[in-house]
Amino acid sequence: MKQFKAKRVLIEDQALEYSLGRKLDERFKEEGIPVEYIKSHNRVSPDEQMSPTALFNWTKETLVVGVKKTLRFKSCYPSADYRLVMNTSCPGKCEYCYLSTNLGSASYLRVYVNIEEILEAVKKHIAKGEGKIVSFEASSSSDPVAVEHLTGSLKKLIEFFAKEEKGRLRLVTKFAFVDNLLDIKHNQHTRFRFSINSNYVIKNFEHLTATLDERITAARKIQQAGYPLGFILAPLMIYDGWQKDYEQTLKKLSSELTTTRNQPLSFELIMYRFTTRSKKLIEARFPNTKLKLDKDSHHHKGFGKYVYPEEKAERLKEFIEGRIRHYFPRAKIEYFT
Ligand code: SF4
Q: What is the model's pTM?
């Protein structure tokens, strides 16, 4: 797949005080991408008359370059101790994406340029742990691999954590651009997780992301580079032929990865879900979606959240966990939710 190229770039004035901000400014101008300068990276307002689909497409083609002001990190329970946000959103257009739903009209891509200040803040948060391991999730608000070719921030982050005795980094991606991360010092302090699914789900719902083959190839490279590795199977969906498809995904994965490493693989399993709010947004943005959004055939978990009814969920859990145990007997299944 091709790397993301913005159709328009908005640069916050203050971002030009940082070398990455100036570098990006020059690069985009050289590439002939229209660049505009704005007062605040939080005040980005496209034409309000746009249809929901047009607005969504606009946000996914727009890159905002800004300075991160809030350097007190939020909790990221249960995935990690803190959220570490170097960028927000991503160029993918996954129909069910909870991030796009939460961000609403702010789904545009944003990269922060004050990397050194963010790393200083990480140090302070590690110190708060008073000698305990402190973990940070780099994908709570974005897919950091998708914009790495522009910023190089993930590489810096991994190298930074390699030197932090008590700091650990986690990230998850649906992209495959990992080549600049293979020969760097990571000290096994960064856990890479790839979000994978059946070919059916990827083709129908995960637009503009890497194919399954590309993700598996990238995962193999990451494993060979010695990183701790894991997979998130999400959203797990039930549709005609789902068992055969998930079997194929796991079989393919097992044939491509080595199993002799000391580091066990981790699996996180998340079944398909939607909320009253996401249903509305998905139907507006993707009028022809094949996602199943009928409330009556799902179980209402409360707070407007819908999942598969108990019996179906149990069947899904048993099948997927059984196949993981079959293909990866030493893997750790962290949770099914
Ligand atoms: S790749 Fe991840 S963050 Fe990007 S649209 Fe898909 S689910 Fe959302």
A: 0.95
Q: Is residue 87 part of a domain?
A: yes
Q: Is residue 307 part of a domain?
A: yes
CB-ligand 1 contact for 197 (6 Å cutoff): no
Ligand 1 pocket mutation pick from 57, 60, 99 by most atoms within 8 angstroms of CB: 99
User: Which DSSP symbol is given to 126?
Assistant: H
Range with the lowest mean pLDDT among 5-9, 10-14, 74-78? 74-78
Domain count, the chain: 1
- Find where tokens 């307002």 sit: 45
**Ligand 1 centroid to 208 CA: how many Å?**
9
Amino acid found at 142: S
Strand-pairing partners, residue 299, are 307
Per residue in 156-189, pLDDT tens?
999 999 999 999 999 999 999 999 999 999 999 9
